[in-house]
Amino acid sequence: MGALNIAIVGSGPSGMYAARKILEKFPNVTLAIFEKQKMPFGLLRSGVSADHPELKITCQGLRRIIRDDRVFYFGNLTFPGDLHVAKYFHAVVDATGGSRSNRVDVFDYNAPNVFDSQQFIEWTLGLNCNRKLEQSIFGCKDISVVGLGNVALDTARFLLSSPNNYDLSYTGKSALRYLALNTTKNVRVFGRRDHTNVPVFAFNP
């Protein structure tokens, strides 16, 4: 088989593992990886709280894929708005799943004090500058979190934490400033299940 040009849209875990398999199977491939964020690895970087550095070790293995001479990485792009790539490649892999939070109808997300979990975690990691969020939580003493999964508990724990618990290389400057000035006294967590049936992993006790 001759040289192949393949594109992967999305550099999260599914996109990167697809890249690894393609590189293994096709020695003559040229692989372009397109990502919405500036940095690669999707939710491994933007969806994992900064006090879980052990999970981010996974990124070290994925960096070897990015460094392969056959791979070209393009960040800060959206699909299909900025990209119409199909006609330039033999195949395009859509690996964009999981990039949005699931929103529920009971909340008004246009309200000044309502935010989805992805917005919050990205802010704590310094991946977005959310002035509206900062204006709501800085100086706030009572905050509610809806949900009992890992991200919800990451959020609740962050709101009651201090800078000493977070990896400074992964935590945004505004988030560190919040932690240093933390005035939050009460975080109420709401969920459909009781505490014995929450869908979390062992690192969220």
Low-confidence stretches: none
Alpha plus pi helix count: 7
Percent of residues in helices: 25-40%
Specify the biggest β-sheet. Answer: 4 strands, parallel
The order of strands across the largest sheet is 3-2-1-4
Descriptive account of the structure:
By secondary structure, the protein is an alpha/beta fold. The chain is 29% helix and 15% strand. The protein has seven helices and six strands. The protein has helices spanning 13-25, 42-46, 58-66, 117-124, 131-137, 150-159, 173-180; strands at 4-9, 29-34, 71-74, 91-94, 142-146, 186-190. The strands form two sheets. The protein has a four-stranded parallel beta sheet with strand order 3-2-1-4, with helices on one face. Strands 5-6 form a two-stranded parallel ribbon. Helix 1 links the parallel strand 1 and strand 2. Helix 4 crosses helix 6. The longest helix has 13 residues, at 13-25. The mean pLDDT is 82.
Short summary:
It is built from 7 helices and 6 strands; from the N terminus they run E-H-E-H-H-E-E-H-H-E-H-H-E.
What key phrases describe this protein's structure?
205 residues, alpha/beta, four-stranded parallel β-sheet, 7 helices, 6 strands, 29% helix, elongated
How would you summarize the topology of this molecule?
Blueprint (H helix, E strand, L loop, with lengths): L3 E6 L3 H13 L3 E6 L7 H5 L11 H9 L4 E4 L16 E4 L22 H8 L6 H7 L4 E5 L3 H10 L13 H8 L5 E5 L15
Helix pairs in contact: 4-6
